[in-house]
Write a structure and sequence with these properties.
Layout (H helix, E strand, L loop, with lengths): L14 H16 L21 E4 L10 E4 H4 L5 H8 L12 H5 L13 E2 L2 E2 L10 H7 L12 H4 L5 E2 L2 E2 L1 H6 L25 E3 L9 E3 L1 H8 L21 H5 L18 H4 L9
Antiparallel strand pairs: 1-2, 3-4, 5-6, 7-8
Bound molecules: heme C (6 copies).
Length: 279
């Protein structure tokens, strides 16, 4: 029955792959969280945990592991500012953030220095030798309820929502957030970016809807350097081989989608109106 609905023009040797794709489509749509195999499951049940990074390499015993939330920071800053200008890795725990680097004004300390004023408030300082348990606990907060000022539900109450949490694109379009892209003393002044043409990524399969990729929108959030050359090492469109396999593996589009940008089980956001997953 299922095979009958596959268009004739699909070549035979694509069928095996088709069935595999179908299998993980079903997997995604079922929203199973108990999978044994490695596939990115659905986003966390609690949207407050989407894009949460726990930093516990050096601090887990004392003063306690650090919780970094993208939902709070991305409402205030572009991805580019942190991941290019400040230089945070696009991978949890890969940067080597230490109390010392923070104290010297790098990493979290680039903003959390107790001096910078943002939104009319002095940003609280990060690690130091003084004992200020209350301040320390705002970051070293894992397993310490009630120590933080910002709480997901209250903070995002007015933001438009999607299934997995905030619809960030809509929040920006509605003027509810205006992420900053420049940090005095850290960012260098650049010429305004030349935006690139948007283009369509055509899947190699007739039953997969092409993807309209907005270069312009992605560049506003990410700048060019976040994608080129590391995630998309190309100067010519069409040279990168990508597939849902690499996306699911956390590469290509999956370097952001599924971790911080909207998750991969929102098929329709990329495959507009695809026939197999259109509901
Ligand atoms: C205020 C700074 C800041 C902003 C803004 C920010 N990030 Fe991050 N991001 C971080 C830090 C810090 C980490 C953790 C790095 C580490 O542990 O070495 C991280 C980690 C990540 C990771 C890896 C997560 C994982 O679980 O492996 C991805 C992907 C990512 N960021 C994407 C983005 C995207 C996309 C945006 C914009 C929508 C963004 N970030 C905005 C600071 C930021
Ligand atoms: C680009 C600037 C910037 C960087 C880099 C940055 N932050 Fe922040 N962070 C802010 C601002 C601004 C606030 C809001 C502060 C306020 O309103 O008091 C904030 C708030 C927070 C809060 C909320 C505290 C609370 O009481 O709810 C935590 C936790 C936090 N940051 C952790 C971190 C950690 C950990 C890092 C490094 C991995 C980091 N931040 C890097 C700018 C930054
Ligand atoms: C803005 C967020 C932030 C605040 C506030 C903060 N820290 Fe940290 N601190 C970090 C991060 C991030 C790490 C690295 C965590 C890891 O990987 O284990 C860290 C690590 C540490 C470490 C581990 C040792 C090391 O070499 O890295 C100590 C000790 C520490 N902080 C002490 C403090 C003390 C004491 C305070 C309060 C006076 C404080 N921190 C406040 C973000 C913060
Ligand atoms: C972040 C964007 C994004 C999302 C979300 C997304 N895809 Fe894809 N998908 C892609 C890209 C990019 C390709 C590669 C296009 C090509 O083949 O050139 C692709 C290709 C495919 C293919 C063709 C086979 C292959 O591996 O190339 C299938 C089938 C597919 N996607 C199914 C899905 C399903 C089912 C979902 C939802 C569970 C989904 N996709 C969600 C971006 C996305
Ligand atoms: C979110 C990731 C992302 C961002 C941000 C991004 N690009 Fe791209 N870029 C791509 C992808 C994906 C391709 C297509 C690669 C392929 O299919 O071979 C591409 C292709 C290109 C190409 C070759 C195709 C063409 O249009 O001529 C150029 C040049 C390029 N990008 C420049 C830029 C510049 C300049 C910026 C910043 C203004 C930028 N990119 C921002 C993902 C990105
Ligand atoms: C460097 C991080 C990054 C990479 C890589 C990336 N995206 Fe995105 N993308 C974002 C962010 C951030 C948003 C804003 C919405 C959000 O955060 O959920 C977004 C939004 C989108 C949107 C909705 C906005 C629009 O364009 O209409 C689509 C569709 C999309 N991405 C497709 C893709 C595809 C396809 C790829 C791979 C070719 C890709 N993205 C790679 C970060 C990324």
């Amino acid at each position: 029955m299922l095979m009958c609905s596959i268009p004739e023009r699909i070549r035979k040797n694509e069928r095996g792959r088709f069935l595999l794709m179908l299998a993980y489509t079903v997997f995604f749509l079922m929203n199973t969280s108990s999978a044994q195999i490695y596939l990115p499951g659905p986003p966390p049940q609690n949207p407050a945990d989407y894009g949460k990074v726990i930093l516990d390499t050096y601090s887990s015993t004392s003063p306690g592991a650090v919780v970094f939330d993208h939902w709070l920071h991305r409402s205030k800053f572009t991805c580019r500012l942190c991941h290019v200008d400040i230089g945070f890795a696009m991978e949890a725990k890969a940067t080597g953030i230490r109390a010392a680097t923070n104290r010297q004004g790098f990493h979290c300390g680039a903003c959390h220095d107790g001096k910078r004023v943002m939104d009319g408030k002095t940003v609280f300082a990060s690690c130091s030798d003084e004992s200020n348990d209350k301040r320390c606990a705002r970051c070293h907060s894992l397993g310490k309820p009630g120590v933080r000022e910002y709480e997901y539900k209250a903070f995002t109450a007015k933001f438009p929502k999607a299934r997995y949490g905030v619809n960030w694109e809509a929040a920006e379009n509605d003027g509810l957030i205006k992420p900053i892209d420049f940090l005095e003393g850290i960012s260098v002044k650049r010429r305004p970016m030349q935006s690139r043409e948007d283009f369509s990524i055509k899947a190699g399969y007739s039953w997969v809807n092409p993807i309209i990729f907005s270069h312009e929108k992605h560049s506003i959030w990410n700048g060019c350097e976040l994608c080129h050359p590391e995630i998309f090492p190309t100067a010519r469109k069409g040279t990168v081989k990508y597939s849902m396999f690499s996306n699911i593996d956390g590469r290509r589009c999956g370097a952001c989608h599924g971790k911080v940008a909207f998750p991969l089980n929102n098929c329709r956001m990329c495959h507009d109106g695809g026939p197999l997953w259109a509901q």
